[in-house]
């Protein structure tokens, strides 16, 4: 820049030109005429420019970024990974074949409506595909719901140990998260309703809940829906619904079908074994589905995900085998852990929440480090407000026996 260029005070530049000048330092504002030499911003302008930096919307910087369960250990050791609630049976062979077949058309855009996937879901559960919206995991759908219906001044409720993504989605929209306390690590309808205000626009309910494994019977869910104002959307997160074997449990399909303000979300990351492909779906009232389709990305599902997801949905035998495996080993693990003197929260999902004494030598943190030294990874749940707990995913028979043996060694007892 020419060191002899004249000093120009910002007040001598019309506001529109100053805004242009601030965006493009050195460009000559039209109001100064073409005869003016290239200009150098004064210290005052430079200081002003340095303070005008991009700022996230309110709430964004209050978000604590989601940290997934650990998956690797030092030294390249292949771990027994029981930290992310993945199925030990893996995906359906039919889903794997569909995924491989999709490689022949990677240059093509996917079907923006995910028709094959929505049709497969509809056929499996007897639902209208037009009311199904698919996304990159149920996380994306939870986020889309928040973006469609929440904004500054609004409130959304979730329970004390609810899925961390709820808080993230609420804050990202500039809305206010409201936490309802639980009773015995279980959602409490009365405590949720006590948090409802005229500003409430959404309630997130994980049923079953992660990381506790507890659930609300359908009668309690109906009571919650009936007591909520009509302008409040109840989001039923059924990520683990396929595992539940309780006569008083329902995932929420009936409530969505019979109300105008209930949404159910589901995932392919758990029992279907397709976590790597990021597939989720929501069953919605027609107007809610319309709103979500207006804001979702035009190709938010890849073709391999669509085809593999549809194949997995058709393979009923594979998911039934996963349920049977979980039924066998969930109870076995709970009984074996209790024999070791550990408190275990009763679970209806594919994981157990294990409670440890607060003493440092035998606490959750020490146990976590010991297990990792044995090549076993569980999930610490400090971020969920449970610093004295570890979450254990049901694994293969070999993995389940190995983790019980390692816990017994940690506690100094014979398994």
Can you give me a brief rundown of this structure?
The protein has helices at 15-23, 43-51, 93-101, 115-125, 137-149, 164-172, 189-194, 218-227, 253-258, 286-295, 303-314, 316-339, 364-373, 397-411, and strands at residues 80-81, 132-135, 155-159, 176-180, 200-206, 233-237, 262-267, 280-283, 343-345, 351-355, 376-377, 379-381, 386-393. By secondary structure, it is α/β, with parallel strands linked by helices. Helix 6 links the parallel strand 3 and strand 4 (176-180).
Q: Indicate the CATH class of the largest domain.
A: Alpha Beta
Query: Mind describing the biggest β-sheet?
Result: 7 strands, mixed
Distance between the termini: 77 Å
Under the CATH scheme, the architecture of the largest domain is: 3-Layer(aba) Sandwich
E-strand count: 13
Question: Could you please say which CATH topology of the largest domain applies here?
Answer: Aspartate Aminotransferase, domain 2
Element string (H = helix, E = strand): HHEHHEHEHEHEHEHEEHHHEEHEEEH
**Helices and strands: which structural class?**
alpha/beta
Uncertain residue segments: 1-15, 17-26, 32-36
